[in-house]
Amino acid sequence: MRRRHFEAFRPLCPHCLRTGAGPQPLVIARVAAERDGDILTGVLHCPNQACQHEYPILDGLPLIVPELRRLLSERGIELLLRDDLDPGLESLFGDGIGPDSWFDSLRQTVSTYGWDGYADLDPEEAPDPGGPQPGAARRCLERLLELGGAPPAGPMPPRMIDAGCGAGRSSFALAARHPDALVLGCDLNLALLRLARRVAAEGWVRYARRRIGLAYDRRDFAAALPGAERVDYWACDATCLPFAPGGAAVVSALNLFDCVPDPPALLAALAAQLAPGGRLLLATPYDWSTRATAVQGWVGGHSQRGLHGGAAEPQMRTLLAAVPGLRLVAEQAEFPWHTRLHNRSCVSYRGHLIAAARDG
Q1: Which strand (E) or helix (H) includes residue 314?
Q2: What does the pLDDT look like over 198-229, one tens digit per residue?
Q3: Which keywords does the record carry (predicted)?
Q4: How are beta strands 326-342 and 345-358 bridged, if at all?
Q5: Fewer Cβ neighbours under 10 Å: the N or C end of the chain?
Q6: d(C-alpha 221, C-alpha 178), whole Å
Q7: CATH for 87-358?
Q8: How many CA atoms lie within 13 A of 229 on its CB side?
Q9: Which helix (H) or strand (E) holds 327?
Protein backbone atom coordinates (compact mmCIF):
# COMPACT_ATOMS: atom_id res chain seq x y z
CA MET A 1 0.00 0.00 0.00
CA ARG A 2 1.60 3.18 -1.14
CA ARG A 3 1.56 5.84 1.57
CA ARG A 4 0.94 8.40 -1.15
CA HIS A 5 -2.36 6.74 -2.02
CA PHE A 6 -3.29 6.22 1.63
CA GLU A 7 -2.89 9.94 2.28
CA ALA A 8 -4.73 10.96 -0.91
CA PHE A 9 -7.70 8.57 -0.67
CA ARG A 10 -7.94 8.67 3.15
CA PRO A 11 -9.74 5.32 3.61
CA LEU A 12 -12.66 5.02 6.01
CA CYS A 13 -13.69 1.99 8.00
CA PRO A 14 -16.04 0.04 5.68
CA HIS A 15 -17.64 -1.78 8.62
CA CYS A 16 -18.65 1.53 10.19
CA LEU A 17 -19.94 2.78 6.83
CA ARG A 18 -22.07 -0.31 6.27
CA THR A 19 -23.49 -0.37 9.80
CA GLY A 20 -24.31 3.33 9.77
CA ALA A 21 -21.75 4.33 12.39
CA GLY A 22 -20.52 7.14 10.16
CA PRO A 23 -17.19 7.96 8.54
CA GLN A 24 -14.31 6.74 10.69
CA PRO A 25 -10.85 7.33 9.14
CA LEU A 26 -8.53 4.34 9.36
CA VAL A 27 -5.08 4.70 10.85
CA ILE A 28 -1.88 2.79 10.15
CA ALA A 29 -1.55 0.79 13.36
CA ARG A 30 1.46 -1.36 12.50
CA VAL A 31 4.12 -1.52 9.81
CA ALA A 32 6.08 -4.77 9.69
CA ALA A 33 7.75 -4.22 6.32
CA GLU A 34 8.05 -1.15 4.12
CA ARG A 35 10.06 -0.19 1.05
CA ASP A 36 10.34 3.32 -0.38
CA GLY A 37 7.04 4.54 1.02
CA ASP A 38 5.24 1.31 0.10
CA ILE A 39 3.89 -0.63 3.09
CA LEU A 40 4.28 -4.33 2.25
CA THR A 41 3.06 -5.83 5.53
CA GLY A 42 1.08 -4.17 8.28
CA VAL A 43 -2.30 -3.48 9.84
CA LEU A 44 -4.88 -0.71 9.45
CA HIS A 45 -7.12 0.00 12.41
CA CYS A 46 -10.46 1.69 13.06
CA PRO A 47 -10.10 3.88 16.19
CA ASN A 48 -13.87 3.98 16.80
CA GLN A 49 -14.27 2.50 20.29
CA ALA A 50 -17.46 0.73 19.23
CA CYS A 51 -15.74 -0.90 16.23
CA GLN A 52 -12.00 -1.52 16.62
CA HIS A 53 -11.87 -3.50 13.37
CA GLU A 54 -8.45 -4.34 11.92
CA TYR A 55 -7.59 -4.66 8.24
CA PRO A 56 -4.42 -6.51 7.18
CA ILE A 57 -1.87 -5.46 4.58
CA LEU A 58 -0.04 -8.38 2.94
CA ASP A 59 2.24 -8.26 -0.09
CA GLY A 60 1.36 -4.57 -0.36
CA LEU A 61 -2.39 -5.28 -0.61
CA PRO A 62 -4.64 -3.75 2.05
CA LEU A 63 -7.89 -5.67 2.58
CA ILE A 64 -10.40 -2.90 3.36
CA VAL A 65 -13.76 -4.65 3.16
CA PRO A 66 -16.82 -4.59 5.44
CA GLU A 67 -16.93 -8.40 5.76
CA LEU A 68 -13.26 -9.24 6.20
CA ARG A 69 -13.79 -12.68 7.74
CA ARG A 70 -15.96 -13.74 4.85
CA LEU A 71 -13.40 -12.54 2.29
CA LEU A 72 -10.58 -14.34 4.07
CA SER A 73 -12.57 -17.55 4.44
CA GLU A 74 -13.50 -17.54 0.75
CA ARG A 75 -10.38 -16.11 -0.86
CA GLY A 76 -7.63 -15.94 1.76
CA ILE A 77 -5.84 -18.91 0.18
CA GLU A 78 -5.09 -16.67 -2.81
CA LEU A 79 -2.89 -14.48 -0.62
CA LEU A 80 -1.17 -17.39 1.09
CA LEU A 81 -0.40 -19.50 -1.98
CA ARG A 82 3.23 -19.62 -3.06
CA ASP A 83 3.99 -18.09 -6.44
CA ASP A 84 7.58 -19.30 -6.67
CA LEU A 85 6.85 -22.97 -7.34
CA ASP A 86 8.87 -24.74 -9.98
CA PRO A 87 6.61 -24.96 -13.06
CA GLY A 88 7.01 -28.74 -13.10
CA LEU A 89 5.87 -29.03 -9.51
CA GLU A 90 2.98 -26.66 -10.17
CA SER A 91 1.92 -28.91 -13.05
CA LEU A 92 2.16 -31.99 -10.83
CA PHE A 93 0.01 -30.34 -8.16
CA GLY A 94 -2.47 -29.19 -10.78
CA ASP A 95 -2.86 -32.76 -12.07
CA GLY A 96 -3.15 -34.10 -8.53
CA ILE A 97 -5.71 -31.59 -7.30
CA GLY A 98 -7.57 -32.11 -10.57
CA PRO A 99 -10.07 -30.33 -12.82
CA ASP A 100 -13.04 -28.39 -11.43
CA SER A 101 -11.14 -27.84 -8.17
CA TRP A 102 -10.52 -24.50 -6.46
CA PHE A 103 -6.94 -24.62 -7.73
CA ASP A 104 -8.08 -25.26 -11.30
CA SER A 105 -10.64 -22.43 -11.14
CA LEU A 106 -8.07 -20.05 -9.68
CA ARG A 107 -5.47 -20.78 -12.35
CA GLN A 108 -8.01 -20.43 -15.16
CA THR A 109 -9.13 -17.03 -13.90
CA VAL A 110 -5.60 -15.70 -13.52
CA SER A 111 -4.66 -17.08 -16.94
CA THR A 112 -7.62 -15.41 -18.66
CA TYR A 113 -7.21 -12.00 -17.04
CA GLY A 114 -3.42 -12.07 -17.02
CA TRP A 115 -3.31 -12.86 -20.73
CA ASP A 116 -5.75 -10.12 -21.67
CA GLY A 117 -3.96 -7.59 -19.50
CA TYR A 118 -0.35 -8.22 -20.38
CA ALA A 119 0.18 -10.71 -23.22
CA ASP A 120 0.87 -7.80 -25.59
CA LEU A 121 4.07 -7.21 -23.58
CA ASP A 122 5.07 -10.88 -23.46
CA PRO A 123 8.09 -11.63 -25.70
CA GLU A 124 7.05 -15.30 -25.88
CA GLU A 125 3.48 -14.60 -27.02
CA ALA A 126 3.15 -15.70 -30.63
CA PRO A 127 0.82 -13.61 -32.83
CA ASP A 128 -2.50 -15.26 -33.64
CA PRO A 129 -4.13 -13.28 -36.47
CA GLY A 130 -7.23 -15.46 -36.47
CA GLY A 131 -7.75 -15.59 -32.73
CA PRO A 132 -8.59 -13.22 -29.89
CA GLN A 133 -6.17 -10.38 -29.27
CA PRO A 134 -5.05 -9.32 -25.79
CA GLY A 135 -6.01 -5.90 -24.48
CA ALA A 136 -9.83 -6.06 -24.58
CA ALA A 137 -10.15 -4.28 -21.22
CA ARG A 138 -7.67 -1.59 -22.25
CA ARG A 139 -9.40 -0.97 -25.58
CA CYS A 140 -12.78 -0.83 -23.87
CA LEU A 141 -11.58 1.78 -21.39
CA GLU A 142 -9.97 3.86 -24.11
CA ARG A 143 -13.24 3.88 -26.04
CA LEU A 144 -15.14 4.90 -22.91
CA LEU A 145 -12.72 7.77 -22.31
CA GLU A 146 -13.44 8.94 -25.85
CA LEU A 147 -17.20 8.70 -25.30
CA GLY A 148 -17.15 10.37 -21.91
CA GLY A 149 -14.76 13.16 -22.75
CA ALA A 150 -12.50 14.82 -20.24
CA PRO A 151 -13.81 16.17 -16.95
CA PRO A 152 -14.43 19.93 -17.15
CA ALA A 153 -11.57 22.38 -16.79
CA GLY A 154 -11.03 23.76 -13.33
CA PRO A 155 -10.15 22.31 -9.95
CA MET A 156 -10.81 18.58 -9.97
CA PRO A 157 -9.49 16.06 -7.45
CA PRO A 158 -6.48 14.21 -8.90
CA ARG A 159 -7.93 10.84 -7.90
CA MET A 160 -9.44 8.08 -10.02
CA ILE A 161 -10.96 4.73 -9.07
CA ASP A 162 -10.94 1.62 -11.25
CA ALA A 163 -13.61 -0.57 -9.63
CA GLY A 164 -13.46 -4.26 -10.47
CA CYS A 165 -10.00 -3.73 -11.92
CA GLY A 166 -9.19 -7.43 -12.34
CA ALA A 167 -5.55 -7.86 -13.38
CA GLY A 168 -5.14 -4.09 -13.40
CA ARG A 169 -4.23 -3.11 -16.94
CA SER A 170 -7.18 -0.70 -17.16
CA SER A 171 -5.81 1.12 -14.10
CA PHE A 172 -2.52 1.69 -15.91
CA ALA A 173 -4.46 2.93 -18.94
CA LEU A 174 -6.18 5.53 -16.75
CA ALA A 175 -2.84 6.64 -15.35
CA ALA A 176 -1.35 6.95 -18.83
CA ARG A 177 -4.28 9.06 -20.06
CA HIS A 178 -4.24 11.33 -16.97
CA PRO A 179 -0.60 12.01 -16.03
CA ASP A 180 -1.48 14.14 -12.98
CA ALA A 181 -3.81 11.64 -11.35
CA LEU A 182 -3.39 8.95 -8.72
CA VAL A 183 -5.25 5.79 -9.76
CA LEU A 184 -6.56 3.18 -7.36
CA GLY A 185 -7.60 -0.24 -8.68
CA CYS A 186 -10.12 -2.05 -6.47
CA ASP A 187 -11.27 -5.66 -6.65
CA LEU A 188 -12.14 -8.62 -4.45
CA ASN A 189 -10.17 -11.21 -6.43
CA LEU A 190 -6.98 -11.38 -4.39
CA ALA A 191 -5.05 -13.48 -6.91
CA LEU A 192 -5.63 -10.92 -9.66
CA LEU A 193 -4.74 -8.07 -7.31
CA ARG A 194 -1.44 -9.79 -6.49
CA LEU A 195 -0.66 -9.99 -10.19
CA ALA A 196 -1.51 -6.31 -10.67
CA ARG A 197 0.45 -5.22 -7.61
CA ARG A 198 3.61 -6.93 -8.83
CA VAL A 199 3.38 -5.04 -12.12
CA ALA A 200 2.89 -1.71 -10.32
CA ALA A 201 5.54 -2.23 -7.65
CA GLU A 202 8.14 -4.35 -9.44
CA GLY A 203 7.47 -3.89 -13.15
CA TRP A 204 7.14 -7.63 -13.54
CA VAL A 205 4.38 -10.01 -14.77
CA ARG A 206 4.16 -13.58 -13.51
CA TYR A 207 1.29 -15.95 -14.17
CA ALA A 208 0.52 -19.42 -15.54
CA ARG A 209 -0.90 -19.20 -19.06
CA ARG A 210 -3.37 -21.98 -19.80
CA ARG A 211 -2.51 -23.97 -22.89
CA ILE A 212 -5.39 -26.46 -22.75
CA GLY A 213 -7.02 -28.59 -20.06
CA LEU A 214 -4.66 -28.72 -17.07
CA ALA A 215 -1.59 -27.81 -19.10
CA TYR A 216 -0.14 -24.36 -18.29
CA ASP A 217 2.99 -22.47 -19.31
CA ARG A 218 4.71 -20.14 -16.84
CA ARG A 219 5.02 -16.56 -18.03
CA ASP A 220 7.68 -14.31 -16.48
CA PHE A 221 8.55 -11.02 -18.14
CA ALA A 222 9.19 -7.34 -17.50
CA ALA A 223 6.40 -4.79 -17.92
CA ALA A 224 7.48 -1.17 -17.60
CA LEU A 225 4.24 0.77 -17.90
CA PRO A 226 4.08 4.57 -17.89
CA GLY A 227 2.64 6.03 -14.71
CA ALA A 228 3.03 2.80 -12.72
CA GLU A 229 4.32 4.78 -9.74
CA ARG A 230 0.91 6.54 -9.58
CA VAL A 231 -1.10 3.29 -9.47
CA ASP A 232 -1.95 1.19 -6.43
CA TYR A 233 -4.28 -1.74 -5.79
CA TRP A 234 -6.52 -2.36 -2.78
CA ALA A 235 -9.01 -5.11 -1.98
CA CYS A 236 -12.32 -3.22 -1.64
CA ASP A 237 -16.00 -3.97 -2.15
CA ALA A 238 -17.25 -1.75 -4.98
CA THR A 239 -20.69 -1.52 -3.37
CA CYS A 240 -19.12 -0.16 -0.16
CA LEU A 241 -16.04 1.77 -1.20
CA PRO A 242 -14.21 3.02 1.90
CA PHE A 243 -13.87 6.63 0.81
CA ALA A 244 -15.63 9.90 1.50
CA PRO A 245 -18.06 10.80 -1.31
CA GLY A 246 -17.25 13.26 -4.06
CA GLY A 247 -13.50 12.70 -4.22
CA ALA A 248 -12.88 11.15 -7.65
CA ALA A 249 -12.61 12.75 -11.08
CA VAL A 250 -13.20 9.42 -12.86
CA VAL A 251 -14.70 6.12 -11.73
CA SER A 252 -14.59 3.20 -14.13
CA ALA A 253 -16.24 -0.22 -13.82
CA LEU A 254 -15.67 -2.63 -16.69
CA ASN A 255 -17.78 -5.82 -16.73
CA LEU A 256 -18.65 -5.43 -13.06
CA PHE A 257 -22.31 -4.42 -13.21
CA ASP A 258 -23.52 -7.99 -13.84
CA CYS A 259 -21.24 -9.50 -11.16
CA VAL A 260 -22.68 -7.99 -7.96
CA PRO A 261 -25.70 -8.92 -5.82
CA ASP A 262 -27.38 -5.50 -6.17
CA PRO A 263 -26.62 -3.69 -9.48
CA PRO A 264 -28.64 -0.51 -8.67
CA ALA A 265 -26.76 -0.21 -5.36
CA LEU A 266 -23.49 -0.48 -7.29
CA LEU A 267 -24.51 2.39 -9.57
CA ALA A 268 -25.39 4.58 -6.60
CA ALA A 269 -22.14 3.72 -4.78
CA LEU A 270 -19.96 4.48 -7.79
CA ALA A 271 -21.79 7.71 -8.62
CA ALA A 272 -21.42 8.88 -5.02
CA GLN A 273 -17.64 8.81 -5.42
CA LEU A 274 -17.68 11.35 -8.24
CA ALA A 275 -16.78 14.98 -7.78
CA PRO A 276 -19.05 17.48 -9.58
CA GLY A 277 -18.25 17.16 -13.27
CA GLY A 278 -16.63 13.76 -12.77
CA ARG A 279 -17.14 10.88 -15.18
CA LEU A 280 -18.58 7.42 -14.57
CA LEU A 281 -17.46 4.89 -17.21
CA LEU A 282 -19.34 1.59 -17.39
CA ALA A 283 -19.20 -1.48 -19.61
CA THR A 284 -21.36 -4.56 -19.25
CA PRO A 285 -22.45 -7.47 -21.47
CA TYR A 286 -25.39 -8.23 -19.12
CA ASP A 287 -24.03 -11.77 -18.76
CA TRP A 288 -26.09 -12.61 -15.70
CA SER A 289 -25.49 -15.53 -13.39
CA THR A 290 -27.46 -16.45 -10.27
CA ARG A 291 -24.15 -17.20 -8.54
CA ALA A 292 -23.52 -13.44 -8.52
CA THR A 293 -26.98 -11.87 -8.82
CA ALA A 294 -30.36 -13.32 -7.93
CA VAL A 295 -32.62 -13.35 -10.97
CA GLN A 296 -34.92 -10.70 -9.53
CA GLY A 297 -31.92 -8.35 -9.51
CA TRP A 298 -31.06 -8.83 -13.16
CA VAL A 299 -31.32 -5.76 -15.35
CA GLY A 300 -32.84 -7.31 -18.46
CA GLY A 301 -32.63 -10.94 -19.41
CA HIS A 302 -35.96 -11.88 -17.79
CA SER A 303 -39.60 -10.72 -17.59
CA GLN A 304 -39.86 -10.68 -21.36
CA ARG A 305 -43.60 -10.12 -21.02
CA GLY A 306 -42.96 -6.70 -19.50
CA LEU A 307 -42.69 -3.24 -20.99
CA HIS A 308 -39.25 -3.68 -22.57
CA GLY A 309 -39.53 -7.35 -23.47
CA GLY A 310 -36.60 -8.28 -21.25
CA ALA A 311 -34.21 -5.80 -22.89
CA ALA A 312 -31.46 -4.51 -20.61
CA GLU A 313 -30.53 -1.18 -22.21
CA PRO A 314 -33.75 0.78 -21.49
CA GLN A 315 -33.76 -0.50 -17.92
CA MET A 316 -30.16 0.61 -17.49
CA ARG A 317 -31.06 4.11 -18.72
CA THR A 318 -33.93 4.22 -16.22
CA LEU A 319 -31.59 3.23 -13.38
CA LEU A 320 -29.07 5.89 -14.39
CA ALA A 321 -31.75 8.56 -14.50
CA ALA A 322 -32.84 7.58 -10.96
CA VAL A 323 -29.39 8.32 -9.48
CA PRO A 324 -29.48 11.93 -8.21
CA GLY A 325 -27.16 14.25 -10.09
CA LEU A 326 -26.07 11.63 -12.64
CA ARG A 327 -26.51 12.43 -16.32
CA LEU A 328 -25.99 10.15 -19.33
CA VAL A 329 -23.35 11.66 -21.63
CA ALA A 330 -22.93 9.01 -24.33
CA GLU A 331 -23.32 5.31 -24.94
CA GLN A 332 -22.39 2.64 -27.45
CA ALA A 333 -24.77 -0.27 -27.84
CA GLU A 334 -22.14 -2.88 -28.73
CA PHE A 335 -18.40 -3.11 -28.20
CA PRO A 336 -16.44 -6.31 -28.93
CA TRP A 337 -14.71 -7.98 -26.02
CA HIS A 338 -12.98 -11.32 -26.68
CA THR A 339 -11.76 -13.34 -23.71
CA ARG A 340 -9.24 -16.14 -24.24
CA LEU A 341 -9.82 -19.33 -22.25
CA HIS A 342 -7.13 -21.55 -23.77
CA ASN A 343 -5.46 -22.20 -27.14
CA ARG A 344 -8.65 -23.51 -28.70
CA SER A 345 -11.36 -21.58 -26.92
CA CYS A 346 -12.49 -18.02 -26.29
CA VAL A 347 -15.64 -16.17 -25.25
CA SER A 348 -16.95 -13.24 -27.29
CA TYR A 349 -18.96 -10.50 -25.58
CA ARG A 350 -20.67 -7.42 -26.97
CA GLY A 351 -20.57 -4.91 -24.18
CA HIS A 352 -22.89 -1.96 -23.64
CA LEU A 353 -20.70 1.10 -23.02
CA ILE A 354 -22.02 3.99 -20.93
CA ALA A 355 -20.42 7.30 -20.02
CA ALA A 356 -22.20 9.45 -17.43
CA ALA A 357 -21.36 12.69 -15.65
CA ARG A 358 -22.02 13.99 -12.16
CA ASP A 359 -23.67 17.40 -12.36
CA GLY A 360 -22.26 20.23 -10.26
Answers
A1: helix 313-322
A2: 999 999 999 999 999 999 999 999 999 999 99
A3: Methyltransferase, Transferase
A4: antiparallel
A5: C
A6: 26
A7: 3.40.50.150
A8: 4
A9: strand 326-342
